[in-house]
Amino acid sequence: MTETGNESVNPVIRISGLSKSYGAKQVLNNIDLAIYPGQVIGYIGPNGAGKSTTVKILCGLISDFEGEVLVNGVNIQQDPVAVKKMIGYVPELAELYEVLTPLEFLELMAGLYQLDPAVSRPRMEKMLQAFGLGANLQQRMDSFSKGMRQKVLLIAGILHDPSIIILDEPLSGLDANSVIIVKELISRLAKEGKTIFYCSHMMDVVEKVSDRIVLINQGSILADGSFESLQQQMGAGSLERIFSQLTATDNLSDTASELIGAFRKEGGTHE
Amino acid sequence: MNKISAFFFWLAMLPAKLYEQMGANRAQLAMILRYKLIMDDRRPNTFQQTQVNRKKEGVSRATYGTMLIALFMGLLNLIAFAMGADDITYFTIYFSFFLFLLSATLISDFTSVLIDPRDTQILLPKPVNDRTFLLARILHIMVHLFRVIVPMLLPAIVYLAIDYNLAVVTRFLISAALASLMAIFFINALYLLIIRVTTPERFKSIIAWFQIGFMILIYGAYQVMPRATAMENLQQFTVSDYNYVRFLPPYWFAASVVHAWWWLLVSAIVSLLSVWVVIRYLAPRFNQKLAMLGGSSETLVSQKKSTGTLTSETGYVKRLAGILTRGTVERAGFLFTWKWALRNRGFRMRVYPAIGYILVWFVISIYRNVFQLGESGENVLKGSAAGLLGIIYLSCFIFISAIQQISQADEYKASWIFYSAPVSAPGPILLGMLKALLAQFFLPLAIVVTGLGFAWQGWVVLPNLLLGFSNILLISGFLLLINYKKLPASLPSNKADGTGNFLRGLLMLVFNGVFGVAHYFVYGFPIVVLISVILSGAAIWLVYQRIARISWVEVATN
Which value does ipTM take for this structure? Predict the structure, then answer.
């Protein structure tokens, strides 16, 4: 399958021959991927497909892998710090230090990215205001809802104006209006030439947001291309349908029948 | 940041130039350390964690608490100077206490303060080099150590300065510093051992168990030690009589204070060697293992499925539920309460230390009564009657501490299942809960007490045991009706008012006492005891019927 995007430009991320295993379990199996500036990559796959391992490798959290990962030409194994500077990472599960206030947390983040406080302080205040957290600046985050925490994490991910943004289920816990804001934010960031690596289970969002979809299962890439090109190959239908055609081992409609069948009396007929 | 933390921060960052030469980024290092210290202040320490009505928000002086506790332990350590006949014995005992208490304190705090699995997700993706991370962690650990070690040593320093001289104080400080290094070695070795024999996921709960055990041990020691020091032969005791003592680290540290410089050399070499082992071998492996704490849950799921013990355990619980409960709702309440109380870490942290204290108390009471039985020949019957009744009525206190906590949970929102289920009244759920708590927290002790009673007096004791136990069942039912008409795991922890709980506990003590004293008066008259058993049984039936009829309105307003 073909890669979309402007291939005359150098790729911002080049993954070649990437493999990773935990003991006997092969999580990633010889992945090759080139990602170009301004692309929004929808990175999808079933649970345990190897999505989060890929993300952890891109973020420099896992360094013992086989193959090569270059970010803007920098080898991540040789200079992880330089790569980390270029990347903004928004983890799933709303992991943050909840005994801090959002301002304190962001100040810590800004400090680690070595931003000048004169630049970062007004920036974080403006971003928090824009997300409707203006009233909660001095409040410890242990009382925050999941959506509020997610907003703080989103800000922490883009605060240093990175050229690559990795989002792991960024919409979880957000209300409908915030979802619209984030989707709009993603397309604006992409227009400014930023590369976005979007991991999610929500197929309808991935379908709309991404201009290139990479589907992995059992550590290998099964499909790679724009939504339209996937439709051409797999037959028309939603991304959800294409996803299940490629990844489901059983017939999903049979599974539903079995579920319904469980109501019937034991020994009775199914049909 | 409070003043003490600010001072330590300033102290830690003094050699900033040196850190830069070592390859760390000064600004990032300061940032991480500063916020780590701020977070320390806001995180409840081990002892605050076990408190009932801790407020999640608003803890801002946790380190003061840690330091006060360390100071208290330091005072307790002074007991060492009352044990034995000579200086070398004093100091050997002192350093044994010091090593033990320091290791134990640090191991409990290391988990909540120093090892934060979220670091992997939050700090590691940031452009910070390894040296900076390592240095930040080392400085953080050092600051934390100082916060514990300084107050712990302070009482001994004052005592030595008054009773001995400055030279002794100086030698003592050097030895204490070396002993602290050795404690760090112990902790690292223990952590690695724990992590090696178990999965990282279980690591946290094992540490929680350790914390509980540690608190019980401190309490037990506190109960037993003053009695032990009073013994005459302990005053005559000297460690010099035992040759093998020379192979134990506390003796080396003591000897370098009391005896010759070459003992100092031995302690210095061994301590520094152990630190080298930590840095060279233990710490890197430890960090590797720690990185797994955050993720890799997928691989663990499949392992859990094959655990055989889980099915056999639920099998016996289900049989128990079948015997003790009637109807599916009561059974559901029983099974949920049973499993939740066994598995919820928060509940265990709040209740098990209390159980430990009571058990220590319980064992001491039994011990004393046995002795009374042996020594006072004519008072045998009277002594054991009061003793036996005391133990019977004491045995329900573990249940009481459990029922006080069962309604509180961090995940209280999950209790929607009770409210959304088509249950006309919550009474049967509460009755199931009561029975589960009794079966879990009272039945085992009742069996022990029965065994003890038979050992003392044989079958004759049976009517009195029956009366005692049925009274406890009655009191438990009353207790639930009066105070605890709350569904299991249905309220946030900070909603419970501490003073109210204390008063209720006191009320229970009085209540229990009245029953106990009344029982004592009829103890010698088997017919009266048997009639009382029947009356008590009838009252149980009435009370439990009433519990089964508790309505939604009562649960909501209670």
Answer: 0.75
